Amino acid sequence: xxETPAIxxxxxxxxxxxxxxxxxxxxxxxxxxxxxxFRGETWHYLGLGIELPSPGDFKTTFLGETPIxxxxxxxxxxxxxxNRCAHRGAMVCHxxxxxxxxxxxxxxxxxxxxxxxLVGVAFRNGVRGEGGxxxxxxxxxxxxxxLRVDVFHDVIFGxxxxxxxxxxxxxxxxxxxxxxxxxxxxxxxxxxxxxFFRNNWKMYMENVRDPYHASILHxxxxxxxxxxxxxxxxxxLDERGWHSVVYTKRATDDIRGSEYEGDLPSVKTGLVLEDxxxxxxxxxxxxxxxxxxxxxFPSVTFQQISNCLGVRHIVPRSVDTSELFxxxxxxxxxxxKQTRIRxxxxxxxxxxxxxxxxxxxVTNMVQRGILGADKDEASIVELGGEGYESGTNRVTETVxxxxxxxxxxxxxx
Length: 413
Ligand code: FES
Ligand SMILES: [Fe+2]
Fold this sequence. Notes:
2 domains, four-stranded antiparallel beta sheet
């Protein structure tokens, strides 16, 4: 853990079942997260190998707040380095993706190679014998800060930590299995978009791990039978409780005699869609899992929801804003019809999605609701107990408690 100034914060005695609201709106805690958590012993999603197929291909992204360039060099190796000029700190690259032999900073034209090494300084020797850098200036001392990179099934992860275990170990067997299950053959990118949230980044990472709300807040899921608690499923956590897999099997649904026929005010089970092609698809996986969210602490979720495959990557923008970057995926070998089905279903997700817009709305309702809360006020995360065990019951907040366990361990709180 990188040492940062002390923060004025104490975790409640009730442990993982109480999450202080202060964690979502305290600037000092937000600043500490950038060092302790994002630069700590954690791996972060940087992109996919298929986004950078050729030497010189690059993309820009963020690790926490820090701007990052990911680049495939001329030998085919993947490199990641901070997108912050070694001269005076300007962002070197302003493009989302492209191909470069060198990255040249717009401010004074210092240039960096595909590994982030400084290879050129404008007017290094001055002009007509005057000015320029001192003779002692050594290019090799002023490269861009580099990250450790690891790749799992074409998913590129990066870290500032020298000691965190390799990604395969970090993920543990359940996450490895479920990520491999989706990334089982070459994929293709169907699109990118981002969604701006007016809420702290952790509010979304709680939300995406929370099966409790899925068929309640999301009327579409509950009413049209895409995801209900009456379906078979599981909430799995790795040994440390840091990462999670939550899945459901739609075909196993049986709401007869269940709570759905009682008094759940928002769920209407008798509705049918005027145009069922909106959610039409095909069974894609032998294990019959139809909804699967695989979340790797701290900041990325891989998804299979019906036939919508993709990645959601959260970037903190300020203490009370964040941005979620979506990458929609299909398989390189699929036919045009399958691709069209994935794109049609994706109307349910993303910033204006019939399902996902509700997540952005409700997390902002929490951010607004906690304004003015006292330091000892906290949310209640007791559904399903106090621990972070795996189980087949999804009326539980076990996966949220796992997130907060990881948070406490990385933040030292
Ligand atoms: S800030 Fe990049 S060259 Fe000066
Ligand atoms: Fe949701």
